[in-house]
Amino acid sequence: MTANPLPVSPSARRGGRSPLRPRSEASRLAALRHSLSRLKLDALFITHLPHIRWLTGFTGSNAVVLVSSRKQWLLTDGRYKTQAPNEVEGFEILTASKSLFALAAEKKLLRPRTRVGIPAGHLTLAVYHNVRRLFSSMRLVDTVNVVEPLVAVKEEFEIVLIRKAVEITDAVFTRILRLIKPGIRELDIAAEISYLHRTAGSDGDAFEPLVASGERGALPHARASERKLRRGDLVTLDFGCRFRGYCSDLTRTVAVGTVSREKKKIYSTVLEAQLLAIERAAEGVHGKTLDRIARNHIRKRGYGRYFNHSLGHGVGLEIHEPLRLSALSKDVLQTRNVATIEPGIYVPNVCGVRLEDDIVIRGKGCEVLNRSTKELLTL
Ligand code: ZN
Ligand code: ZN
After folding, report:
1. Which residues surround ligand 2, an ion (CB under 5 A)?
2. What is the DSSP letter of 227?
3. How far is the CA of 4 from the centre of ligand 2 (A)?
4. How far away, in angstroms, is 312 Cα from ligand 2 center?
């Protein structure tokens, strides 16, 4: 498949960086520094790779970023000596053959007594203790949820990339339908999804495709198995790809031949619940409200105890970003949040149905990115 034209940044026109990555680091750094001053921090370590990619464009597998009120550094290892300067602008790049935190301490990047945030939730206990030892002359503060709220509100160019990932996944869904017939194994369908994602121009699967047929459909996160499809099965397919790092996430449930009236009722209940939630998704709406709308509908139809996961999650450089649409969520939706809406009903030993779309919050409503049909397809 050929890629649609995508916006070209001025730096790319000058022969610089990827045309798919406009230069937004400066505004991202400014927003991050604003958060730091609000939290009364002089500096912050960032270790979570998707956050580092978001802030710097670096795509390698080992890095630590340090942002102070005036300067910013990216520390990585020798494997990325050439790659890092190609991908990252505006950060001083340091490479080390030892622990990146040890390098930061040795280079004395921060003055003693600096109030520096360490992302406790993204470090192993061993690294956490090491950081506390290496920077004992600093005032260390455990931080959570500093970068996450900034990542959750997407820039338009990011939505373009998510949309492209969604288009590829939608196209793969159309092509996979011809395979779905009695006798084929779930594993063969999953393999074909992965192959088609690659050949359609994506970076590859965003996660291992889930294919769950018949009574296995009642396992919400069933991995594809050797089970062969049978007439009368419902089959749930949950898959997504990455395009230039950004994820898509789609679920559809289809029928193999004619299915029972009960299965059709379960399907239409899930579809109605999903449409009700999508209809209400807008700026200012609480994540838990959307979850309740879908859940109430499913409960009214008599399947309340069979919807045993949350309604949706944020999507972006990670397939599961912290934005949550769940009963316990404290999140309030903002324009340019991207999230999934994915209610499901799972009746043990009988079947499962889930439908999932990716949406973008736009003021008083939302845009559904997926185009795949939600009619119950009988194959
Ligand atoms: Zn999914
Ligand atoms: Zn999902």
Report:
1. 249, 340
2. P
3. 25
4. 6
Ligand 2 centre distance from Cα of residue 223 (Å): 14
Is 293 in contact with 276 (CB distance < 8 Å)? yes
Residues 31-67: tens digit of each pLDDT: 999 999 999 999 999 999 999 999 999 999 999 999 9
In tens, the pLDDT along 104-127 reads: 999 999 999 999 999 999 999 999
pTM (two decimals): 0.91
Phi–psi pair at 292, nearest 5 degrees:
-65, -40
For residue 289, how far is its CA from the centre of ligand 2 (angstroms)?
18
Nearest ligand to the C-alpha of residue 250? 1
Q: Which of 149, 167, 200 is the last residue of a domain?
A: 149
Contacts of 239 (CB under 8 A, 6+ apart): 169, 172, 190, 193, 197, 205, 207, 209, 210, 250, 251
Give residue 169 CA to ligand 1 midpoint distance, Å. 11
Specify if 189 maps to a domain.
yes
Ligand nearest to the CA of 312: 2
Strand-pairing partners, residue 169, are none
Domain boundary among 86, 117, 149: 149
Centre of ligand 1 from the C-alpha of residue 3, in Å: 23
The residues near 50 (Cβ < 8 Å, ≥ 6 apart) are 151, 316, 317, 318
- The CATH number given to whatever domain includes residue 32 is 3.40.350.10
Question: Which tokens is 100 given?
Answer: 């990146």
How many domains is the chain partitioned into structurally? Answer: 2
Quote the CA–CA distance of 323 and 166 in Å, as a whole number.
19
Span from the CA of 2 to the centroid of ligand 2 (angstroms): 26
